[in-house]
């Protein structure tokens, strides 16, 4: 499985016309990459939905579309709702090489535990996250990824943007400041252990997958059996 970051070809920005034009090309690239490599490919791009746009990931397996997920939680502090419409449901897909049921998510989603709790209830055993998380909150990125792995007892693979990316909106003087992104693409085990860390380097981050270990841990330390619905 290959995982690319959020809005991988354009960066995290809000130019609707450009995003709408680029979206189909990005989707075609992901499809071709999946077909050419024989891999599942997960990558983020703008997806036309009616008259609007979604910040989405598409998932292809050997060139065939498995699922698409539209980001449920839009980054209000950064103005993302001005460009994109939120999604309405989680998505899951099966990774045939491992048998794992996988939940895709996008960047800011990481802050909202109930989304991943819903995925866990639906049987998700792995989480993949496409992201453009800035350097100023790298500590949150690393902490929340570990939290999701531990609480969901799930393998987590997260690809983040690296380097100085243009800000999503123009500043008051008409300039577009650059926002540092740390990379820090990670693979974490179902115990929250870091299996691979890309640090501040461009390149591939890889780690082995042990589906049997995930399932054994869920059986011997069955947190899900003790889950309670909290009355309101």
What's the short story on this structure?
This protein has 232 residues and is α/β, with parallel strands linked by helices. It has four helices and twelve strands, in the order E-H-E-E-E-E-E-H-E-H-E-E-E-E-E-H. The mean pLDDT is 95.
Textual characterization of the structure:
- By secondary structure, this protein is an alpha/beta fold.
- The protein has a single domain (2-169, 178-224), classed as Nitrilase/N-carbamoyl-D-aminoacid amidohydrolase.
- The chain has four helices and twelve strands.
- It has helices spanning 16-37, 113-121, 138-152, 211-220, and strands at 2-3, 40-49, 52-61, 64-70, 93-95, 100-106, 126-131, 155-160, 162-166, 178-182, 186-188, 194-197.
- The strands form three sheets. It has a six-stranded mixed sheet, covered by helices on one side. It has a four-stranded mixed sheet with strand order 1-2-3-4. It has a two-stranded antiparallel sheet with strand order 9-10.
- The longest helix is centred in the first third of the chain and has 22 residues, at 16-37.
- It is globular.
- The N and C termini lie far apart (40 Å).
């Amino acid at each position: 499985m290959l995982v690319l970051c959020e809005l991988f070809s354009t960066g995290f920005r809000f130019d609707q016309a450009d995003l709408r034009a680029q979206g189909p090309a990005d989707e075609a690239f992901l499809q071709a990459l999946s077909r050419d490599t024989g891999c599942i490919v997960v990558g983020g791009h703008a997806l036309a939905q009616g008259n609007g746009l979604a910040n989405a990931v598409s998932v292809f397996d050997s060139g065939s579309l498995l699922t698409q997920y539209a980001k449920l939680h839009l980054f209000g502090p950064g103005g993302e709702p001005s460009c994109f419409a939120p999604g309405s449901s989680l998505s899951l897909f099966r990774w045939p090489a491992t048998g794992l049921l996988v939940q895709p998510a996008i960047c800011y989603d990481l802050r909202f535990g109930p989304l991943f709790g819903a995925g866990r209830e639906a049987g998700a055993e792995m989480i993949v996250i496409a992201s453009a998380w800035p350097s100023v909150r790298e500590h949150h990125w690393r902490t929340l990824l570990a939290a999701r792995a531990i609480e969901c007892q799930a393998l987590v693979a997260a690809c983040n943007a690296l380097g100085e990316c243009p800000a999503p909106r123009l500043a008051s003087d008409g300039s577009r400041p650059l926002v540092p992104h740390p990379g820090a693409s990670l693979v974490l085990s179902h115990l929250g252990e870091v299996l691979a860390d890309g640090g501040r380097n461009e390149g591939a981050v890889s780690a082995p997958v042990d589906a049997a270990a995930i399932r054994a841990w869920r059986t011997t330390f069955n947190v899900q059996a003790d889950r309670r619905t909290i009355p309101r």
